[in-house]
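Today's session is about reading a structure prediction critically. Students often jump straight to the picture, but the first step is always the sequence itself: look for stretches that repeat, for charged clusters, for runs of hydrophobic residues. Only then move on to the predicted structure, which in these notes is written as discrete structure tokens rather than atom positions. Here is the chain we will use throughout the hour.
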Amino acid sequence: MAILQDDINKLQKSAINFLYIFVPENSQAMSAEFMSKRKKQLDELTKIYQNNPEYSFKELVLFIQNGIISRYGKTPQQILQMLYNASSPKRVGVSGIGTSEISDDQAAVQVENISTTVTDNGTTSKRNIWEDIKNVIEWLVELFTRLFGNYRNPREYNPTTSDWTYKNRPMYIEGSGASKSSLATIFPVAAAGAIVLFLMKSPNGKKPARRRTTK
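Below is the predicted structure for this chain, in token form.
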């Protein structure tokens, strides 16, 4: 079934549910459960790509990237860094020298209380990011229902606090605090083109066929 402009609008409104595709495949910082969700998100996006010739995989990734920026005023990497800073086992000292340990319970509270600016239908407000993620799932459900009739429950792969707390807290990597260099330290994927490499790794080692792009 062809992708319509309304489908793209729904994909962009629910784009935060694909946040983890912007984490590099070889990330050493994130938990196995987190990376499993990343794979499921990529699988779902690939499903859209493989069944619809209208847009390239890179274009779909850019729709998601732009949807996140439009709604939250932050790039996917900035949101990921915000979550990492709240959940990381250590904090860089005020002077930038030395670190301090943060307990699991402290990190969980910080993660659960993360709020960010959200722009929805022209109205901007401060919201808890996890509540907003739950609220936009309905757009994703509508999209998959129209395109495929059935779908994998988005709650199997959408971002949740449990991805960042207790046993799933990310590993601390030196120099990964809130600094100009920290984005590249933990989340170096900055362009959609890098994510397209995911599709280059099919079981038979063949590159996927080129897709026609319509404007």
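Discussion point for the tutorial: The first strand starts at residue 90 and ends at 92.
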